[in-house]
Amino acid sequence: MKKSLIRPCVVGLGYVGLPLFLKLQNKISTVGYDISDTRVKELKFFLDVNGEFKKKDLVLKKKSLITSDKNLLKFCNFFIVAVPTPISKKNIPDLSHLKKSCEIIGKVIVKNSIVFFESTVYPGVTENFCGRLLEKKSGLKLGVDFFVGYSPERINPGDKKHSIGKVVKIVSATNNNTLKVAKKIYKKVANKILTNKNIKEAESAKVIENIQRDLNIGLMNEVYKVCVNSKINFSNVIKLASTKWNFLKFDPGLVGGHCLPVDPYYFSNFAEKKGIKTEVILSGRKINNSMYLYMYNKIIKDIKNLKLNIKKSRILVLGLTYKKNVSDIRNSFALKLYRLLKKKIKYLEACDPFLTKKNIKNIKVLHNFNIDDYELILNFVNHDLFKNKILKIKKTNKKYLNLF
Ligand SMILES: NC(=O)c1ccc[n+]([C@@H]2O[C@H](COP(=O)([O-])OP(=O)(O)OC[C@H]3O[C@@H](n4cnc5c(N)ncnc54)[C@H](O)[C@@H]3O)[C@@H](O)[C@H]2O)c1
User: Which of 196, 275, 276, 371 has the smallest set of CB atoms within 10 Å of its CB?
Assistant: First the structure.
């Protein structure tokens, strides 16, 4: 495939796909395809409900387009797939979105097309699952007529420091020419590219990055519980331990979102199929999944210790998203904790400027609040937008608790 003939298409315009499409279209005419008509309509009206991009960022460059019409994919020959890879209620990898996207792409790929995957998966999915599906739908042969590759995404929503252009981008494919073409495309969006000739290694690297973080936070959560129970000051313990050269500093927290609570199950499921039980990996999940219940009991106890009445006192929660400075509520333990407390506390309200009625159902979410209207303020998610209000609260005698 010659450089001038590369016609890229980003499939799935969510947290991962949209920034990629927007960067790519600055350099080369690109198709952005999403299966959701609503998402496409909103983007065409310059609205990103994920809150990551403003109107000016969403302006289309000459010859690029955003569409939900899969027929337009036939004009493309380099696909980058960034569709969701969630887990089922039983924590089993759900590859249904990948399956659907491969069925769509399989119908339009032509000889020499390249399909790259950015969705987080377990080792082998790109070649053995997606590759086979593409073969079946296209009638073409993988590795002969068309080629696949994997480039894990390291995007961290809400984090402007580690944006796509600033971090190392792993690009993997088994075939030299595919790597060469992919490098040309990815160079348009990332400054540091690391090529790798084994796709399963790149797939594994992505999941273990998140598993390591999940486990380290899990360890801190466990230590935190022991410290609270024994009336030992956790922050001081960490401050002291951090003076050792090889101590890794992680904060305890509610681990939500689309990656950390999901990826360990992808790898452990894969390992199980290979006959290996991943006890360490899943122990992180066990403690992190239960942390909101621990917090629930702690908050109820704290409220009683503060001599407040859960039937009468007006209490406000700050932040419901899964982490600070984002509007994402997928697997948000702050939200779960709020819902649980709401059953017990009569006058409990929530403020989260990142949320609109559209992305949260059955909860009245305030965008601003009067400090004087509440007897207690609980900070669940430390959005930067709360900074000034929190400084004000701390100057008063108002009862205020941080989650950790
Ligand atoms: N969000 C993150 O921070 C992050 C970071 C690294 C990796 N990832 C991984 O990237 C992948 C995508 O995550 P995301 O957060 O961008 O998801 P998302 O839910 O924000 O976006 C996915 C988009 O894909 C669309 N879609 C679903 N099925 C489709 C199909 N068959 N064809 C075309 N479009 C389709 C959806 O409508 C949606 O707009 C996941 O595998 C995730 O694990 C996410």
Answer: 275
